[in-house]
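Researcher: Good morning. I'm working through a list of sequences from a screen, and I'd like to move beyond sequence-only analysis. For each chain I'm collecting a predicted structure so we can compare shapes side by side. This is the next one on the list. No need for commentary yet; just the structure.
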Amino acid sequence: MSEDTSTNHQDLLETWRSQIRQADINNVFCHCRDCEAEWVGSAWDENCPSCGSTKIERISCWQFPDD
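Model: Good morning. Structure tokens for this chain:
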């Protein structure tokens, strides 16, 4: 692989990673394992708004298909 191709590949990879990080910021599907509440949040460390539990399952919303 030429140096130009390698550099372009690295640039594309960093752009892709940056877009994934941006998608994660305000789109986190949360499920409380204690009270079964579900919500979309914007933090990976928030407690359940219904019961205050810290036993939260979190999934980035961009991982769900649109259809």
